[in-house]
Design a protein that fits this description.
This protein is of the alpha+beta class and 271 residues long. The chain has nine helices and nine strands.
């Protein structure tokens, strides 16, 4: 069976955001774009610079060629106080004018690793974090950064339960927002930021303080949230991810999978 803009259009709509609820995709056509050399990398800052930089990022109208992440994490070994909390910007320009002077004018960097590289090399920057470990993660999609949110993130970032903890903000908008909320099953096109809250800790160590840290920060930032991505859901349930698109997804589930064969997922029930 084929789903496309011209064939089984309703299934094609559901698959773009509905995940594994509607079958197993064996083959798909993907439009690629040539990308070789880029400008990207990370800039590390002292924790006290975080509020100023987050306010600046919040007002920056980033071009579609640029992607920016901000994070609270443990300082790597090459910084003066490894293991202690620091603030980081990770940026990448795939083409176009690279506004590095503006970026480098923020705060007082502890280390600036942004420079020419290749897209492939940049994708392997954090491969060392792939080692198996106990892990807890929660997530929000949200609007513009508020003073309350910035204060909360900075406070929790200063007191992680483990050096393996991470608070990550990924800027959205751009091409994501260029598609309407009802044009595909993915609903939250107007979200400005993706917030990921994670803790990891060694095997054999009690999990409770780390799970509590993640859940407490997730709870403290709920007022800012507008929803969630389905692949980041924990116990919240699919309505938070699909919003106004859930009713149509439920109808299509009844049509394409009335017995709920594909249910080992963030499930859209046909009932």
């Amino acid at each position: 069976m084929t789903a496309s803009p011209d064939e089984n259009q309703d299934l094609f709509w559901a698959l773009r955001g509905g995940g594994g609820n509607f079958g197993i995709v064996l083959e798909f056509t993907l439009r690629l774009r040539p990308v070789d050399e880029v400008v990207g990398g990370m800039i590390f800052y002292a924790l006290e610079d975080a509020p100023e930089i987050l306010r600046a990022l919040n007002t920056w109208e980033a071009p579609q060629e640029a992607g920016v992440l901000a994070a609270f994490l443990a300082a790597p070994p090459f910084l003066p106080e490894p293991g202690l909390p620091v603030f980081v910007i990770a940026a990448c320009w795939v083409s176009g004018e690279q506004d590095l002077a503006w970026l480098r004018g923020l705060g007082t960097p502890l280390a600036d690793l942004v420079g020419p590289t290749t897209f492939a090399v940049l994708q392997h920057t954090n491969d060392a974090q792939a080692a198996p470990t106990p892990y807890r993660m929660r997530h929000h999609l949200g609007g513009p950064l508020t003073e309350s949110l910035i204060e909360t993130l900075t406070g929790f970032g200063a007191e992680p339960s483990s050096p393996g903890n991470l608070i990550l903000l990924a800027s959205l908008g751009g091409a994501i927002a260029g598609v309407g909320p009802s044009e595909t099953a993915y609903f939250h096109r107007n979200a400005a930021w993706c917030l990921e809250i994670a803790a990891s800790w060694p095997e054999g160590v009690a999990s409770e303080p780390h799970v509590t840290w993640v859940d407490a920060l997730w709870q403290a930032t709920r007022d800012w949230s507008v929803g969630a991505e389905v692949n980041h859901l924990a116990e919240e349930g699919v309505p938070l991810a699909y919003g106004d698109n859930l009713a149509r997804l439920t109808e299509l589930k009844r049509k394409w999978d009335p017995e709920n064969v594909f249910h080992l997922n963030q499930n859209v029930s046909p009932a």
